[in-house]
């Protein structure tokens, strides 16, 4: 028996075992160091793990474990010691934030971590478990723990703001994941001790490449109905990515025309590249759920014989797409998937731009926990043109530093490659490596020429088209896609087609399960030659695999028009009859106010750049990559991305993690989720509504509700009567609390074609 009291980190688990504090600190320090082994700051990461719960050596905290105390800050003492004794600023910030989120790294903020200031600067409602750090250290010494001065640190100078921000966040990620996993292992323990979770599948690039080659042979090449020129172009792209794979790790672009097989080609590059450089995983981020579902379906087929969760989907609809998963949502594989989404301990991750990029700028422990898995990885961005301009410079700087400092490779893949390299100097001010990507397919201009499958007809002499006239034309066209700039426009066109057969609608006014079903029906009609008239917003453009002979596109930014052309004669089958697909760009008859014509001012600006180029050149060749380079250069000259988002840039400069997280958002956050009664899933809606009314909603309820939810803008003058707030389960019946994010549709306002269609709908619609 020890001759001093035993201090504990956590109370007893189900087997009655308490978690010794010394064991916890050593385990977390060891894990954090393991996660950062190949960095220069591995010792600082270990120190953060050893110090993160220093305040648990306080007598008051030990009483808290017995239920006799509450409201204690047990982390600030370790942060203070890391800062004052070991000069480890990043470790101090990580320790301070491992429960409350990363805070602020300015000199004034760090003064709050001085021992004399701890009691005065702790969060409201909390008290320091013991302000006497010397007394805590004496108990550490009794426990036999020792701390060492790190040989090098995360932060030596702060001249590169983004670099410092990301380095701190990566160390924070190592600490948080290590802490979560060791705590989880304790509470999952049995009579024999801690039980760590089962690790994710092993990444074997050789086996993965063999599976991909087999899939390409049997499922793609043999089954393809594409034109011979398309097949030739796809083989050229396939060879080019293989040739580029041994390139040094860094930043890359992959420019290839729509329909050239880019989805599988970039997977080949990533696998070959990871094999050559012994990288640890592949992360693919896409902008829209429609794209990720499509890509996930392909990846599941490629790796069908691999262990479960070899490919991990981390997005709001993951686990909802397969009937077997719906029937056994609590099965072992599904439980493991949910655990793995916390820290991405898998070979391949499929996620969204929002999930990945907002995590890179978040301060929350749960969001940052997975970030250390991005080190020594291949990170692919499909449809890279979707990155918002106002976030371009800080995003590129963060990805550049991740690539340069942590042996990762970042790939921007698209048919309409943004000229982000022209922002190199602005990026270099925040991350020394700047942005100078290498092109994986240097011969891509020839691919675009080979894959010319459409003829674009541009509006002439300011000609305008009314919705009734367009509706009459569409009604006489057997198979046609129309892409509108606004949902209001799509509804106006649909109104003119209400007596026409084979009309479908696609927009984010449809819940995700509904959109998936519409696309399945559309593809079936196209395949069997049935009438098919799809009226859509921009959500159909980025990577959605549909193939129409005719596409009408409302005048828009050049990259949006090009994406729409990718839904026309996609497989090149019309070329065999010496025909091209037809894309008609039209100018709707609308009010001259841009707010009535376009979803955002940035969208309007980009449209005007397109209009100016069309006036100057007469025709714009969407098969010419140099046209897009000119377009983006003119757009950046007009909008000056480097000068945008001043508040975010200021927060980054000041290393203010709270404000950084508040200002970095890819999508408008002023929205709420509305559970809707889509007819095909009425029973699911009814069950969710009943559960919400009877028990209140939980995280599990929200996860199951995602497939039947529509995201809606919050009105300025109060919530509409048809949106009923959902009650939160954690509140008692006597103290009812309601969610401000989740509502349930009341009334007959969900249409089988239009989706959400409330009486005052248009001003709430998200375009």
Would you give an account of this structure?
The protein contains 30 helices and 23 strands. With 767 residues, the chain is an alpha/beta fold. The protein folds into four domains: 8-187, no CATH class; 205-446, Rossmann fold (3-Layer(aba) Sandwich); 453-622, P-loop containing nucleotide triphosphate hydrolases (Rossmann fold); 671-764, no CATH class. Strands 7-8-6-9-10-5-11 form a seven-stranded parallel beta sheet. The protein has a six-stranded parallel beta sheet with strand order 12-17-16-13-15-14. A four-stranded mixed beta sheet has the order 19-18-21-20, with helices on one face. α1 (21-35) runs antiparallel to α2 (42-51), α1 crosses α9 (161-187) and α27 (646-653) packs antiparallel against α28 (657-663). The protein starts with 7 loop residues before the first strand and ends in an 11-residue tail after the last strand. Mean pLDDT is 89; it is low at 320-330 and 762-767.
Brief account:
With 767 residues, the protein is an alpha/beta fold.
Give the uncertain stretches in residue-range form. 320-330, 762-767
CATH homologous superfamily descriptor of the largest domain? P-loop containing nucleotide triphosphate hydrolases
If strands are numbered along the chain, what order do they take across the biggest sheet?
Answer: 7-8-6-9-10-5-11
Structural class assignment:
alpha/beta
Gross morphology is: globular
Mean pLDDT: 89
Query: How would you sum up the major sheet?
Result: 7 strands, parallel
- CATH architecture call of the largest domain: 3-Layer(aba) Sandwich
The Cα radius of gyration reads 28 Å
Task: Estimate the helix proportion, in percent.
Answer: 40-55%
Distance between the termini: 68 Å
Task: Please report the first level of CATH classification, the CATH class of the largest domain.
Answer: Alpha Beta
Give me the number of helical elements: 30
The domain count comes to 4
Q: Count of DSSP E strands?
A: 23
